[in-house]
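Long-time lurker. I teach an intro course on protein structure, and each term I like to show students one example going from raw sequence to a predicted 3D structure in token notation. This year I'd like something fresh instead of my usual example. Would anyone be willing to generate the tokens for the chain below so I can use it in lecture? Attribution to the forum is fine with me.
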Amino acid sequence: MEKILIAEEDFVLAEKLCGAFSDDETTAVTCGSIESALSLAYQTDFRVVILDEIMPDGNSIDFIESIRSYYGEKSDVGIIVLVPNEYIEDSVTAYMHGADDCVSKPFSTAALKARVATLLKRHKHMYNLEASRRFDAIGSASEKGTRGEHMVAIDKYIFDFDKQEFRCFGEAVSLSRIEQGLLKILVENNGVVLKKAALMERMRAETGIQTDENALVNTVMALRAKLDAGDYIKTVYGMGYMWTNRLL
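-- Reply from a regular --
Happy to contribute to a lecture. Here you go:
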């Protein structure tokens, strides 16, 4: 569900837009000032912000500069500025300060929804591209998998092996040293069945911790539970274990 923030002084218009963007794919939140818009944007991961050019406590430039400064290069929120027709020349300034699109008032709701859909598609494309690049950086049972950026995004997971940060549906998951080593080996060898003996040796080389078969089984069970990864970490009976991506 994509979240949309509507910052509009006109309460009637704001409610109309909120209804238009509340469906099976998007949900909308409204506010009536720059201050409240920034407060909400700092706390919630909005995918698109629809922002009136002129607000009671400032203008769109104030919001854009603050949000881009706050998030820096990580700011991927799409910003659409609603510009009164008589101030349409302000669109140039809005674009220069980081707006993604400008729509002149009055406008049709259908046209605005089309602009929002374009931004949502762009973000999805960029996210998928980045996820693909991260996965390519890991590789699969190859020399490339032991070098470079050790970050990978798979479905609901983001694993950063260099920073030792692991997330499932955006929530941080704490993994022990041996669990991290096991996860790294499994993900690097996506789709490859790793025999228990070879896996234990790889884990010893990766973590410096000697394991026996019982410890391996317990680590697999713990990792599977912590990551809710029953669909990804598979037991191949009589052989060993493997990581498999459901969507690949």
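Some talking points for your students: Confidence is low (pLDDT under 50) at residues 125-149. The two ends are 22 Å apart (CA to CA).
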